Give the backbone structure.
Amino acid sequence: MGKAMNKEANREINGETNKGRKLRFTMVFFLLLVMFFAGVLYGAVPVTGADLWNLISGGENTAVYRILAYVRVPRVAGAFLAGAALALSGAVIQTVLGNTLAGPNIIGVNAGAGFMVVLIGAVFPAFYTLLPLAAFLGAFITVMTVYLLAKKTGSSKITLVLSGIAVNSLLNAATDTVYTLHEDSLLKSSAFRMGGLEGIRLQILIPAGIVILLSLLMVLMLHNELEVLSLGGDTAKSLGLPVSFYRFLFLALAASLAGAAV
């Protein structure tokens, strides 16, 4: 009888937990919608709901239509996608590496993506289409370097963070070197170095958004494996999970998210 009561109590607690989680997700989703429409409708030029519907329905090509299509909507959508990508990338990296301090901006993942983009822009300025691939390779090589370096020098969490900070500093110094040696060719890329949303256009947003959404979908589909991996390598192996494969896969997805955001 006592076991039955415990099961009933656990069932009630889990039910309340699920209800609370659904309520939080609903509130956050509603808040995101409010923020999206606020970012699109409010600005130096007043925009109405009718103007937004004119954009959605592909109506008259007015000045407000062009402001929405080429300025506000790409910037707001880019902010949402970049925020989601960096947040999920950080969560995946922290889970895989077992360290809550291992964010993409701390251990050099963002710096690696930025360095490769700047390097391609300096060496191959005509190959603009290579920039997404360069960002992914820079992010992925960086996260794997930090992981292998920390694994070789020590297994403590502080070793991982210190290794990432060292790699981050080296990559930032390398980026400064490229800018110094190729100042003329990279003069128009100073906005990229500082970061921002003013340079976002649909031809940049669409491919990056596709990568982010596909990577996000894959992480959501593999959330059970990620939860098992969070228990630790030995525990995950005892549960039958191929740790090396999923660790490599999740780090690749995190690099894709961070690279696309950068």
About this structure: The chain has a mean pLDDT of 80. The chain has eleven helices and no strands. The first helix runs from residue 2 to 41.
